[in-house]
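Margin note: ligand = zinc ion.
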Amino acid sequence: MLLLEESAMKHIPLRSCIICRQKFPKDKLLAITRISSGEILVGQHISGRSVYLCSALCAQRLTQRKDNLLHRLLNTSVDSLAIQREVENYFSSLIPTE
Ligand SMILES: [Zn+2]
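Resulting structure:
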């Protein structure tokens, strides 16, 4: 089980996707982070309060929710549509165009 040993050696922390709740290595997830100034940054590994999304599908499910999940989790009133647009841009850039 070489793969398992390698990931254990690197000590990559696991984080849960806020939508599907599955755990993944942190570097495989998209981070949405509220930094100390209150700004929300998407897809950057910086310190602050972060939540994580695993896939374009989960990003889509987030946009369909009506409960302002991002606002509650990040304790922010930043326009969630703007955040969602950045999240969508991020995932669409990963998907090969047809
Ligand atoms: Zn997910």
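The helical segments are 2-10, 56-64, 69-74, 80-94.
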